Amino acid sequence: MTTANSDLLDTEAVARVLGIRPESVTRYKARGDLPQPDMMFGRSPVWRAETIREWMVRRPGRTGRPRKP
Questions:
Q1: Is 17 exposed, middle or buried (0-12, 13-18, 19+ CB in 10 A)?
Q2: What is the pLDDT of residue 58?
Q3: Helix or strand run (H / E) with residue 30
Q4: pLDDT digits (tens), the chain, 69 positions
Q5: Could you tell me if 1 and 44 are in contact, meaning their C-beta atoms sit under 8 angstroms apart?
Q6: HSE (CB half, 13 Å, CA atoms) of 13?
Q7: Cβ neighbours of residue 55 under 8 Å, at least 6 residues apart?
Q8: How far apart are CA 51 and CA 17, in angstroms?
Q9: Which of 19, 22, 26, 45 is the most exposed place for a label (fewest CB within 10 A)?
Q10: How far is CA 2 from the centre of its chain?
Q11: Is the CB of residue 11 less than 8 Å from the CB of residue 45?
């Protein structure tokens, strides 16, 4: 989701950025592992792309090590 004035990401767009399924984004949000949404459109959360980029740098559990197979 992108608007003329800002770059907003819905759950599906966040999933694409993170390389995970939308259901996982929903679980991350429910557990409090994602930053709070920047806005809500009805019941749908949206984040600014910058919010997600900043979170990815500080993402919990990220140590720079490769994932286990």
A1: middle
A2: 84
A3: helix 22-31
A4: 544 446 999 999 999 999 999 999 999 999 999 999 999 999 999 999 999 999 998 886 655 555 555
A5: no
A6: 16
A7: 34, 35
A8: 12
A9: 19
A10: 14
A11: yes
- Looking at residue 3, what is its pLDDT? 47
**Packed helices 22-31 and 11-18: angle between N→C axes, nearest 10 degrees:** 100
pLDDT at 60: 64
User: Which amino acid is present at 10?
Assistant: D
Please tell me the total number of residues recorded for the chain in this structure. Answer: 69
CA distance 55 to 52: 5
| Confidence (pTM) | 0.77
**Residue pair 6/48 in contact by the 8 Å Cβ criterion:** yes
